[in-house]
């Protein structure tokens, strides 16, 4: 119930419109209930041969119908507006909340789960708040009004006629509860099948190379028949409930025909009253079903609401204190004091007791085996995580005391996987500085050795890349990501294995560009190639979350066996030539 | 059914009627169920027509005549027919659903098989997304047409004609008056459908834009955070959200006009029936029950018209999908086994190129080109590789290294010349048994979602787990596999994202060891890995190259040196061959490259 209350809270800003739409809905329903009563009156007049009464009654029916038209139109528009406003608010709220949550939160969540919160659950909530409530109250009112009119005509016949009503409602509740999850399950199977199809198309060269077409077909057939089974399950539910809900109210109609007919023959009821009853029964079938469906919707909305609020109630752990000052000006001095980092209570420390002073303008190389804490260390500098113990400061300011956004404007982080957005190459490069001119974008691309291949793309800088566009090779993506970081003009530049997919020749060329931009900033370079590391003035060697050693390349090489084993100093095994066939459609 | 599918070319062209007939042909294997389904549709439609008539009968022959027995009989008939309606509607809904998804299952598999048969060139010409759509979205759109479309058409027309017939029989004067409302309803419905189709399409596009923005910013959350660009994305979302609201508002206005309007038309119909019918009753021409039946039928009359109006949109979408599916099935498979192709049996692995030229462009495109030589990806290649020799292909981007490798595996056929294995041209053999004896390691080893064991045994799904483990051991992959939470049974994720690039390569190597091919084609990975992994890979490479013919697209000097012979390519032609030392001594092309790399 608290969840339900909170859900209703989303309607508060729109309560006037909501009440208005309810009022209109009820008035329209009044007209709808009036019509069968008038039809009954007219039938009586016809049966008794009172010709003069027919035309006025028909006039009243048409009048009621026109009035209903107006009322319903207004009701639909107002209710639609409310529903869409609620949807708008819900989406804004969850999205801005997700954007505020710290990176650590996303490490523990699957993207698919979050997507489902923000789409499926959100849909269930807004559908109930936007339509379900109105349907429910409108349908309930119809049943009550019609029931009252019927009751005044003939109380005991009303009781008999409405006998199947609870059954209809209950059946509809069950239907609504079962059919939606079954349909979502079908969507899930379709998604799995799509993934299977995708893998086969993108991996077709491997399939063909191993002559495994038949085996892959079997796999695909498995996915297809899983979809089939689930579709049949969903069909069965529909096939069972839908005719049942249609037929149940007919029991009431049959009883009306039998007992009401009997009453007319007895003379305890007139034919007009009988006709009204008959048409009320026809009219009630759909509101009864609606009441049940809306109850089912409410249940789903509460379940979805629980999951939705779980995210909304999760406070961001990394945020700027109130009125936090921006990062003070400076040359990019980084200082870490007894820093430890633990990602969660049940994992070992990723960083233990790190003390590190980096002078402004230093180019610091970081070397270590995988899992030694290199990435964790640099992630602290952009305050992607907060240390569990100790403090990190830049140019004398503790990161926790300054504005996070201003901090991140002055740091640029390039990771190995170099994620690009589904947008043009130019927009991707200008990601951190949307106002950058074309010249600046091109200059950044040139420095990152990306200008040449971009020029060869079908639409040059305007080529759309990513999922909906052209697929770039790993090396090309890395160069665009480097250009993006260079254009950001950061005080502190972090290159986390950012050139691993480049061949030696390109890497060599990029070094010239990097050396130029590194001049006035503090740079952290993670890598294992000698050529990469040789960019650094000074190197720290990481081992099991600690700084094991610090010195120049030759110093470390002389005194650390571990260092020697990690650095690829052998030009023989460096990739020299890479076929970068741009995947142009032929 | 499969007969039709295998020969869809008979229906090539824009002839829609024939395409529809072809779709109907898909139903053939299930004709018994189809017959029962139509039987159910007819019965369900017929029984749905009974209640208003029976109510009228109850009034006229029972109630007004004071005949209790007739009333009871009518109510009994009412109950029986209602039960029959529920039963037949159940049968109808179930069978329509069953047949629909069944036919789609067949069609999906057929499209999948056809795509599988296509040669690699086809996959470079077509975007993966489009091909995937053929197997998913387009089939779903066809489902609408097959299950909903056909049945909606049939059952609604049946209902409509049923109502018309009953009304005409009850009283044709009153019936004609009632029909006057029809054109109005029909026109309103068609106009509504026309506008709403566009509006609904727009809402779907808007919501999918929102979903993909959401998906993208969630997957790229690290980049968003590290550049502090949250506000920009929130603003973008507000924009998309607003557009979505506006698009949906259009449908709200459309619905708010159409549905109340049809309600008004029902009321107008009711009024007309009461007025005219009422006078007729008073004049003694008809009975009261007839008037009640007519009003009861009014609703039964309106639903089918509304649904039929909607059918047009379903038809159009289904047809568009059908055109796309046909477009695919009509595409011929380029590389097929010759009728007299033979199973190669165990091959030796001697490989030779005899004056081979190949272009990705078609003959016409090549002729159109001003600079003809530039259009050849490889040109006049003569090369003999004895069984067991390792050849390294060296050259810059676009020199033709990977093209040469693709020709050996017969992903493409050369336009000129021939490639021979054990002295016989490739076309002499059946493709699949030949390919099974060729091991291909693509760059960054493509992995399928599934476990590591499944990926290693990809070429031999029936391999025992100890064989898989032995293969992993042979390439030195056991070390990292043992450190994974579930060892060989660890899921690698989509395309193996859970593994590092070095680990993916080792798995791809183990895959080759397990199939034990005679000829190996290796496109060496380009990304640099740390020194320890590099050493492991080198040792694995030695195991891989031993005792087989190998063509290696080499990216590292260490690999080039491993080769028995180096073939240097430039602009699609062989410029030099020889061992490393020979080529250095020759002081030509390769020597220049080498000097450039090492300085």
What's the domain count of chain B? 3
Spatial order of the strands forming the largest sheet of chain B: 6-7-8-3-9-10
Largest sheet of chain B: 6 strands, mixed
- The low-confidence runs of chain B, each spanning 5 or more residues with pLDDT under 50, are 1-13
* Separation, N- and C-terminal Cα atoms of chain A: 60 Å
**Radius of gyration of chain A from CA coordinates:** 35 Å
Secondary structure tally: strands of chain A? 10
Percent range for β-strand residues of chain B = 5-15%
Overall pLDDT level of chain A: 87
> Class of the largest domain in chain A, according to the CATH hierarchy?
Mainly Alpha
In short:
The complex is a heterodimer of chains A (586) and B (599). Chain A is an alpha/beta fold and 586 residues long.
Description:
The complex is a heterodimer of chains A (586) and B (599). With 586 residues, chain A is α/β, with parallel strands linked by helices. Chain A contains 20 helices and ten strands. In chain A, strand 4 (389-394) and strand 5 form a beta hairpin. The longest helix of chain A is centred in the middle third of the chain and has 54 residues, at 213-266. With 599 residues, chain B is of the alpha/beta class. Chain B folds into three domains: 1-171 and 310-333, ABC transporter type 1, transmembrane domain (ABC transporter transmembrane region fold, Up-down Bundle); 175-285; 388-409 and 435-598, P-loop containing nucleotide triphosphate hydrolases (Rossmann fold, 3-Layer(aba) Sandwich), CATH 3.40.50. Chain B is built from 24 helices and ten strands. In chain B, the strands form two sheets. Chain B has a six-stranded mixed beta sheet, with helices on both faces. In chain B, strands 2-1-4-5 form a four-stranded antiparallel beta sheet, with helices on one face. In chain B, strand 4 (416-421) and strand 5 form a beta hairpin. Chain B starts with a helix and ends with a helix. Mean pLDDT of chain B is 85; it is low at 1-13. Chains A and B meet through helix 2, helix 3, helix 5, helix 7 and helix 8 of A and helix 4, helix 5, helix 6, helix 7 and helix 10 of B.
